[in-house]
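Appendix C reproduces, verbatim, an entry submitted by the partner laboratory led by Prof. M.T., so that reviewers can inspect both the input and the predicted structure.
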Amino acid sequence: MKVLFLTNIPSPYRIDFFNELGKRCELTVWFQARNESNREWEIEGLGRHFRYQFLKGRTFGLDKHLNLSILRELNAEPFDAYIMGCYSSPTEMLAIHWLKLRRKPFILNSDGGFPGNDRWLQRKLKTYLISSAALWLSSGSSCTRYLEHYGAAADRIREYPLSSTVLSGEELQPLAPEEKAELKRKGNLEGVVLLAVGQFIPRKGLDVLLRAFAKLQRELPEGKASLLLIGGGPEEARYEEIIREEGIRGVTIKRFLQKNELLPYWKLADAFVLPTRYDVWGLVFNEAAAFGLPIVTTDRAGAAGDLVRDGENGFVVPAEDTEELARALRRLAEDIDLRQQFSRRSREISELYSMDRMVDAHAAILEGWRTEREVASREHLYLDS
């Protein structure tokens, strides 16, 4: 089965996924760009088990790609299944319109979203693009609600477990006590270590986290908890200003780290927290759960309700609510039994979001798609005869 997947850039988790899916079908991936200005990933394994091509074009702003060459490429080679990785870039809009005009059914993949207060024209455009698909791939309950809001047929939505990384047993092995103690010493970290990993941009809500941590510190004995922020970005100076204004102690800030550099910090942490203002999913939650961390996030994370379950493996608090966030962090900092309970549950949930399960789900969906197309083709021939 010849499958085309159109996506933005070769992110690490997508490459892992494409290589595995490429073992199950004849997969071709078209990338709209090699990178985006807010990404610093190192990519390994590109094209190991799939064909790929970087479309000629330009990128505007952070992530809006225009690849007029896609029209030539679509005309040049037919596929049995067309999967649009999203719908929001000019290139994806062109591809969707081209497919729709030629009555070529396609699958729309979405990692998630939250319906907003769209202007009339924006709402009409989203509805046109999303509802044009014949089948929808959804990362979970939040994404499904989003797709339905913009015209997707509920009975044509297929949810799959979104996985972000492949971790070996060795990589998941915990640190030895002496290694953990040394890493804490080097990082000036004490007590319960709260970890946040994400770009230092307003959307991630790390300013809210700092203010909640300041409140937590005033309520706990000195040295009871520390905070480690990893990510880098334009808001770093603002975070340092908040730390000075609030007189916060025990905060360590590190810039962007690659996957192998992050590993010891996942193992060092006692809990993961990301009070995002908006994340269509939040791939860092997959990693946090894989390492068995209790997770604290907000109701504006797409993973909330699926991978992050309030009261089971963490807490989901309202976005921008410093008081509720501080309360959730305090419960985890003070209660080791609760942290251990949430840790076990995170690992259990993480097993449901493995790369193997993600690939199996897509392979089954594509097999169903092929069967549907074959039946439709036979019925068309029968009606014409």
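The mean pLDDT is 93. Additional entries are available on request from the coordinating office.
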